[in-house]
Amino acid sequence: MKKLLLSILLSSITIQGFSQGNVYKQGSGKFEGLAMTPPMGWNSWNTFETNIDEKLVKETADIMVSSGMLAAGYNYIVLDDGWMSKNRDIEGNLVPDTIKFPSGMKSLIEYVHSKGLKFGLYNCAGTHTCAGYPGTRGYEYQDARFYANLGIDFLKYDWCNTAGINAPEAYATMSNALKTAGRPIVFSLCEWGDNKVWEWGKPIGNLWRISGDIYPCFDCEFHHEEGNWSSWGFMKIAEMRKDIRKYSGPDHWNDFDMMEVGDGMTNTEDKTHFAMWCMLSSPLIAGNDLRKMSKETLAVLTNKELISIDQDKLGIQGFKLSAEEGLEVWVKPLSDGAWAITFLNRTDAPKKINFDWKKNPIKDTDFGFEADFNKITFKIKDLWKNKEAGTTKKNFTADIASHDVITLILIP
Question: Of 158, 255, 310, 312, which is the active-site residue?
Answer without folding.
Answer: 158
